[in-house]
Amino acid sequence: MKGRKLWVIAFLAFMTNGASLLGIGQGSAGSVARAIECNHNIAHNIQMAKALGLLVGNPPIKPNGEFFGTFQVDCSALGMCSVLT
């Protein structure tokens, strides 16, 4: 890299990290990324707290019918009703 390309790359590097190099950390690219991540985490935690807050004090809903699993057995067809009960 010679001349013009080197100065363009140096300028871009200074623009992205120049604020942190000068001691003004709030304007650097890393601090912006951390702020975005922090805002995302705060929003996610607020949503989780609201969702869990709706569940407090409410018992879980029981299903209406009995659950036999994946397969149901008709004991009268097998002639084994006394064994299964």
Would you give an account of this structure?
With 85 residues, this protein is an all-alpha fold. It is 62% helix and 0% strand. The protein has a domain at 1-56.
Number of helices: 4
Principal-axes shape call: elongated
Question: Regarding quaternary structure, how should these chains be classified?
Answer: single chain
Q: What letter string, H or E per element, gives the SSE order?
A: HHHH
Number of strands: 0
The chain-level structural class is: mainly alpha
Q: Average pLDDT value?
A: 75
* Major sheet attributes: none
Global Rg: 32 Å
Helix content: 55-70%
Which stretches are poorly predicted, pLDDT < 50 over at least 5 residues? none
Strand content: under 5%
Keywords: Signal
Signal peptide: 1-21
Summarize the structure.
Residues 1-21 form the signal peptide. Keywords: Signal. The protein is mainly alpha-helical and 85 residues long.
Keyword list:
single chain; 85 residues; 4 helices; 62% helix; elongated
Topology of helices and strands:
Blueprint: H1 4-21, H2 29-55, H3 75-78, H4 81-84
